[in-house]
Amino acid sequence: MNIEKFTIKSQEVITTAQNIALGKQQQQIENAHILKAIFEVDKDIVPYLLKKNNINTSMLAQVVDKMVDNLPKVSGGSGIYLSNASNQALQKALGSLSEFKDDYVSIEHLLLGILSTNDNTAQLLKDNGLTEKGLKQAILELRKGGHANSPHAEESYNALNRYARNLNDLAQKDKLDPVIGREDEIRRVLQILSRRTKNNPILIGEPGVGKTAIAEGLAHRIVSGDVPENLKSKQVFSLDMGALVAGAKYKGEFEERLKSVIKEVTVSDGEVILFIDE
User: Which of 153, 168, 195, 259 makes a 20 to 30 Å CA pair with 5?
Assistant: First the structure.
């Protein structure tokens, strides 16, 4: 098994699974160890995939914890190794690369590999309603046409929702403050956005004067339908630079995240308005 064919996060999952088994004095790395490691390493992708299949991630994680605790313990053993089931899962994950036209095994491949086996962990996923067809469909929805073509592939999935705030959603949920006294600026932004070309407004001003409030006011106007017809379907996202930088510890990871955000905005075919704060 070529570990270099795995993404950074997938490698981290394998290492974490090994450490979990060692910490509990268990000689074999089972699929339960790998699934537990996935829950520990990943907080975005697998919860998204499971939610799409109507599975409660936290409850499933608790059952997996108990499964790991109940696995046989060995004292004084000579090393640690993959069980037949976990080896099959990793081989299946590698084998699924061609189907998705990927270059690297990412976390969703690992989940798909576990599901394809016949051990207790795979049965647990199936008993909770996870099917291969449902999982593959959720993966395609998550990726939005993207592929795992870099060691940081997971950072590019669902990028807008991970690294930006959907101001339309916040406005609908009444979580944005009302905007007062900025009608002229909002109207001018609407005029610029309605152009066919040269339609990228720039808001210039000192910090705190209300540039973000104008973007929020725009979202309010779109939600209430008080905008030109060509803007009524638009979604306003505010890029969260803190989230974009947070946890980017590997070389090229920040750039990968930023490129994925730009790609999602581009493929939206003009349906996304991205507000970039200073």
Answer: 259
The pair of three-digit structure tokens given for residue 66, joined into one six-digit string: 């108990």
- Token match 């390493």: residue? 41
DSSP, res 129: T
Helix (H, G, I), strand (E, B) or coil at 144: coil
For residues 105 and 8, the answer to whether their CB atoms sit within 8 Å is no
DSSP 200-256: -------TTSSHHHHHHHHHHHHHHT-S-GGGTT-EEEEE-HHHHHTT--STTHHHH
- Indicate the class that CATH gives domain 3-156: mainly alpha
Backbone dihedral angles phi then psi of residue 129, each to the nearest 5 degrees: 100, 10
- Give the class (CATH, top level) of 159-276: alpha beta
Assigned token pair, 6: 């795995």
Looking at the DSSP assignment, which residues form a beta bridge with residue 239? 164, 276
Residue-by-residue pLDDT tens, the chain, 278 positions = 778 899 999 999 999 999 999 999 999 999 999 999 999 999 889 999 999 999 999 999 999 999 999 999 887 666 889 999 999 999 999 999 999 999 999 999 999 999 999 999 999 999 999 999 999 999 998 888 888 888 888 888 888 888 899 999 999 999 999 998 899 999 999 999 999 899 999 999 888 888 999 999 999 999 999 999 999 999 999 998 888 888 777 777 788 888 889 988 988 888 999 999 86
Fold match between domain 3-156 and domain 159-276: no
| CA-based nearest residue to 139, from 61, 55, 50, 57 | 50
Domain residue limits, the chain: 3-156, 159-276
